[in-house]
Specification:
The chain has 342 residues and is an alpha/beta fold. It has helices at residues 11-20, 43-46, 61-67, 85-89, 106-113, 120-123, 147-161, 191-194, 208-219, 253-264, 312-326, and strands spanning 2-6, 28-35, 56-59, 70-73, 94-96, 126-128, 141-143, 171-176, 199-201, 227-232, 239-245, 270-272, 289-296, 301-308. A 7-stranded parallel beta sheet has the order 3-2-1-4-5-7-6, sandwiched between helices. The protein has a 7-stranded mixed beta sheet with strand order 9-10-8-11-14-13-12. It binds NADPH dihydro-nicotinamide-adenine-dinucleotide phosphate and N-acetyl-L-glutamyl 5-phosphate.
Length: 342
């Protein structure tokens, strides 16, 4: 198979390139950059960690479609939607890592992203690719989920699907490593700010809130909202989503564990750890989502801890999982089965 990456010099694009370059079903990878190009660019000049002397070609939909079988977009939200119409119109397969096609309702996108949404005619042709819970009618345009949304939804799914949650009780305290913000330097991603620091940002305004709600309501339409916060922490990679909720009625620890086993025992990239609460480093460099759960009878509270590597399961790894699902390949193809530890 021949695949194209748009935005390969960014963090997610680079990780994606690394995975696809070792994928047994990928014959060639073609890299594309800005429309019109910025002079001649080579991957190894911009990403010295990968000494691959591949040109970064100017973005050109006709050329991409004639030389490739699928396009991955690892471009920012707000940018992707302005580039992909020709692919959708041609029914050419795309896996989009950005947030531009995750939300079905353009008004909700506008509210949370503070940008105009893609036209409804295009939005209706995309499907939300949470790999463990894909949409029934998958389209050729797959919106790869956001990093916080992935960790949080996988943590909530079993209890939500089984209607075991008091609908008004969900509180999520999520933390992310700095690579989640991409390669651009900003005041809050520079070393002097975030080293030995923790910073809660986008309180009640994070764009993954509507993304989580859209899927959560498919599972349990009674859940009206969630309280969700995001904190930047001084690690390079990793998300920890700590979820607190009240059960709708009393459940034993065994009943809670059984609901997670039911949904994840056959999922190759979700490792349900029962009452062990996982740490970020246990998944770094891997496509795993590790989940642990605790029930406190004193406060009648269930705590779920869900950890992922934001650049893997939260972006490039899940994109490769979607690629495997789309072409009906072995689900684990091209994905490392061990984290980088310690
Ligand atoms: N980082 C993460 O953990 C996650 C990221 N994502 C999503 O993945 C996407 C990429 O994120 P990330 O890798 O962090 O971002 P980066 O900022 O690290 O990289 C963005 C890439 O997009 C390219 N790009 C920007 N504008 C254009 C354009 N107009 N035409 C072509 N290429 C363009 C950049 O190229 P250049 O440098 O030449 O401008 C760069 O290669 C985003 O939509 C992000 O939301 C999703 C989940 C997790
Ligand atoms: C640490 C950090 O800044 N993280 C980013 C996550 C961006 C991302 O990947 O989300 P989308 O794909 O939905 O844009 C944030 O919180 O906005």
């Amino acid at each position: 198979m021949h695949v194209a990456i748009l935005g390969a010099t960014g963090y997610s694009g680079t990780v994606l390139y690394g995975l696809l370059s070792q994928h047994p079903n990928v014959e060639s990878i073609n890299l594309y950059g800005h429309e019109g190009g910025k002079g001649s660019r080579f991957f190894d000049n911009e990403v010295p960690a990968f000494s691959t002397h591949l040109p970064i070609l100017p973005f050109n939909p006709a050329e991409i479609m004639s030389h490739n079988d699928l396009l991955f977009c690892a471009t920012p939200a707000g940018v992707t939607k302005n580039l992909v119409a020709p692919f959708i119109e041609a029914d050419f397969p795309v896996i989009d890592l950005s947030g531009d096609f995750r939300l079905k309702d353009p008004l909700i996108y506008k509210k949370w992203y503070n940008k105009e949404a893609a036209p409804s005619s295009l939005l209706s042709k995309s499907s939300y690719g949470l790999t463990e819970f894909p949409e029934k009618n998958t389209t050729k345009y797959i919106a790869n989920p956001g990093c916080y949304a992935t960790a949080t939804l996988l943590g909530l799914a079993p209890l939500a699907i089984e209607h075991m949650i008091d609908p008004n009780s969900i509180i999520v305290d999520a933390k992310s490593g700095v690579s989640g913000a991409g390669k651009k330097l900003s005041t809050t991603s520079q070393y002097n700010f975030i080293n030995e620091n923790a910073w809660l940002y986008k309180m009640n305004k994070h764009q993954h809130i509507p993304e989580i709600m859209q899927k959560l309501r498919e599972w349990d339409s009674k859940i009206p909202a969630i309280q969700f916060s995001t904190t930047l922490i001084p690690v390079t990679r990793g998300i920890m989503s700590t979820i607190y909720l009240k059960p709708i009625k009393h459940y034993t620890n065994d009943e809670i564990l059984t609901s997670f086993h039911k949904h994840y025992d056959n999922a190759p990239f979700v490792r349900f750890k029962e009452n062990y609460l996982p740490a970020i480093k246990e998944v770094t460099g891997s496509n795993y989502c590790d989940i642990g759960v605790n029930y406190n009878p004193v406060t009648n509270t269930i705590t779920i801890v869900s950890v992922i590597d934001n650049l893997m399961k939260g972006a490039a790894g899940q994109a490769v999982q979607n690629f495997n699902l789309f072409w009906n390949l072995t689900p684990t193809s091209g994905l490392p089965l061990l984290p980088v530890f310690p």
